[in-house]
Structure formats: structure tokens, C-alpha cells
Amino acid sequence: MGYDVVVIGAGPGGSNAARTAAEEGLDVLLIEKRQEIGAPKRCGEGLSVGGIKNLGLTPDPRWAINEIRGASVYAPNGKRISVRYPETIGYVLERKIFDKHLAMNAARAGAKVLARTVATGLIMENGFVKGVRYSRFGEEIETEAKIVVAADGVESKVARWAGINTTNKLMDIDAGFQYEMVVDLEEPDMLELYFGAKIAPRGYVWIFPKGEDVANVGIGIGGKEQGVAKKYLDAFIESRPDLKRGSILEVNAGGIPVGDPVDKLATNGLMIVGDAAHQVNAIHGGGIHEASVAGMIAGKVAAEAIQEGDVSEARLMEYEHLWREKRGKILHKIVKLRQAIEKLSDDDLNMLAEKLTGQDLVDFANGKNFMKLAKIMMRRPRLVSIAKGLL
Ligand SMILES: Cc1cc2nc3c(=O)[nH]c(=O)nc-3n(C[C@H](O)[C@H](O)[C@H](O)COP(=O)(O)OP(=O)(O)OC[C@H]3O[C@@H](n4cnc5c(N)ncnc54)[C@H](O)[C@@H]3O)c2cc1C
User: Fold this and answer.
1) What CATH number matches the domain at 69-87+170-257, 3.40.50.2000, 3.40.50.1980, 3.40.1190.10, 3.30.9.10?
2) 294 touches 274 (CB < 8 A)
3) For residue 101, how many C-alpha atoms fall within 13 Å in the half-sphere facing its CB?
4) Region 116-139: what's the mean pLDDT?
5) Hey, which of 22, 86, 295, 305 would disulfide with 16, CB 3.0 to 4.6 Å?
6) Residue ranges lining ligand 1, Cβ < 6 Å
7) What average pLDDT does the segment 133-162 reach?
8) Could you read off the pLDDT of 27-36 as tens digits, one per residue?
9) Cα gap 369→372, rounded to integer Å
10) Which residue has the CA at smallest separation from atom 31 of ligand 1?
């Protein structure tokens, strides 16, 4: 039996691709290797209100479990920059429920969803992807597909099977490590971020509250520091009596792609979305929104291409063009910002903390107002060439 579209991986990217394609009337199969969609999570679980809206969702207390009104950012010298809004600007999610909800939406739109089903290879014919090999409870199955969507996350193999190089340079991957903890929280509606070479080299420690006394306490650091993210996080927790007293409910770890996307996002009969394509905000590491938006564009392009009877690379590259217009250009700017910031010393960061507001930091993380940052940096001769890279 064959499908119009087989989507591999039921994270936010895959579920949104499957839902959109099914809503467009396609016959869709969505397969997920884990026995429970969404678990274990590998995520700080932060998502903005705007991000939720762009996904066509209304926050639901079953998965949008804690309202966030702002953030406090700490410079290496401890200087705090805060921004607090009168309204809710984001949520910390329960991703185990959220991801399942997205997969349910795909199923309700008509997609067939199969958990504990692992893709093991692609069927290739004359340079075209023509289907998927997968394994379910020991049974090896082959199914034809007009289009395959590779949404298999940061350790993606599917695109490589189709001949696309998805290898991440060590410089372009962050190592993430996190505990979900019961801790004392002073402001459960504020995110906390801590910077400094001794705290988190080329990264930061985050505290994302999930409620009055539960939080994701995590760290993302440069890929070159691979293997020691836990050590840095443990040292941070050890230095904070409030965290040291806390309990650990979950341990989460994973890589975060923080470079530009893979060279091409489509080939004959295949599109790549989400972490598999390195579509992530390189400053804060957020990829839920990015994967979902890419998935929705891919689902729509799949429907049009199949209707026209043309699933060639040239036709499917429309997905890449649309994505670059909608998200790619801004994400590329944000990669440049990341590359500039990682050249700054703790002293430079302390200097910036004296001059910037919380709103400035929010703007930068969203790819806006780099001119302000560049102008301040240019006052230090050593930073002039770095600042120029931002313009
Ligand atoms: C420590 C950490 C903290 C993070 N914090 C945040 C945050 O606060 N906010 C945010 O927005 N983002 C965050 N991210 C990033 C975010 O989790 C990802 O960007 C997002 O999940 C990407 O979605 P995706 O659908 O592309 O991939 P994933 O969510 O990784 O889904 C891919 C799915 O494919 C499945 N799969 C893989 N191979 C196969 C196969 N062969 N067959 C079948 N299924 C397969 C996997 O099991 C997985 O379920 C964080 C990441 C890490 C590591």
C-alpha cells in the first residue's frame, strides 16, 4: 500500500507537516520511533504567545502550563537586566502533552499516525525517493510514497539516506543538558538566563519555571565543550543554595543546531524540516516554532506538487524558497549575531549590560534592532570589526 506523503518523526515539525498535508486532502502516514510521542522531552519547553498563534493554536492549560510575563538576564558580573510585561508573552509547555496534541491534530485531520515505528531506509528509484522502509514490532515493512518528509530531529539520518549532507560542524552545535527540578522560585512568571565564560562557555544557563515550584534548569554550551555541559550545570546549581536544595525529577540532554540550515532543503521526492534541517533560532536555541512553521510550509508544497504530478527537486525547492522568505532570512541574521556574541569576553558582556535594556535583548533575540548593539560595540576598538559583521 502506498501513501501520498510519509512523514518520519512526530515532533512539532513532523506533526505539523502531516496535519497540513492531510488537511489539504492528501493520504498521509506519520511514523514515530518512540513508544510515546513527546517523551522523553529534550527541551526547555519555552514558546512565545506569537509562536503559539502562528501554529494556529490557542493556549490550552493541559499543555501551556505556566504563563510567562518576562525575563531576567544576568551578565557575568551578576548585573541583572529585566523586562516584565503586563500581559502573558509566552508559556512553558508540558511537551509530552503538547507534542501528543500536535500528533492528535494530525490524526484528526486524517493522517495515519503510528508510534513505535522506526524508519530504517528509503526506497530510491532513478534518483527519486519513492518510499520508506520501516520496522514495527519486529516486522519489516515497505511502503511507497510520492513524497517523504524527513522530520527526524537533530540526529537526522533520513536526509542523508537521500544523499543530502546534514552533518553539523562542531562550531554549529550546542550541547544541551537539563534537569526538571522542584525548587524555590521567587518569580515563577519570569524566565532567568545566566551568561559568562565560567558559567556556560558560549551559551547560557536557563531557569524556565513550569509552575510555582517546578522549573527546567538547563544549560546550552558550545559544541566544542561536548560532554561537560552537565559539569557546568552541576557547578551552577552547587553555587546556588536555593537550587542545591532542590530535587531532580527528570534529566534531559540533547544537541541544539545553532548554525545555518542544511545546504538544500529538498531533493527529488523529499523535503527536510525542523532540527533535521537545522532550522533553529541560534541565539536562544528555540526550535519548536521554527520546526512547526517549516512543517506547515512543506505540507502545503507537498499538496500542490502532488496535484501537479511533479515531485522533482526543482518543484519541491519551492518549500525552501518560501521558508527562506518567511523564516530563513531572519534566522540567518540571528546566526550572525550568535557568531558576534561568542567573540565577546565577559568584560564586553558586562559593558553591554550597562547600556542595554531588557527590551533590547528581546529585540536582538528576534533578529531586530542590531544597529543599536553595533553602535555600542563600535565604541570599543577591539569590537569594531565584530560589530561590522552585524550590519
Ligand atoms: C536541552 C534543549 C532545550 C531546548 N529548549 C527549547 C525551548 O525552550 N524552546 C524551543 O522552542 N526549543 C527548544 N529546544 C529545541 C527543540 O526541542 C527542537 O528544536 C524541536 O523539538 C525540533 O522539532 P522537530 O520536530 O524538528 O524534531 P524533534 O522534536 O526532535 O522530533 C523528531 C522526532 O523524530 C523521531 N525520529 C527520529 N528518527 C526516527 C526514525 N528513524 N523513525 C521514526 N521516527 C524517528 C524522534 O524520536 C523524534 O520524536 C531545546 C532543545 C534542547 C536539546
Assistant:
1) 3.30.9.10
2) yes
3) 17
4) 98
5) 295
6) 8-14, 31-34, 42-47, 118-119, 151-153, 176, 178, 218, 252, 254, 256, 274-276, 280, 285-289, 291
7) 97
8) 999 999 999 9
9) 6
10) 11
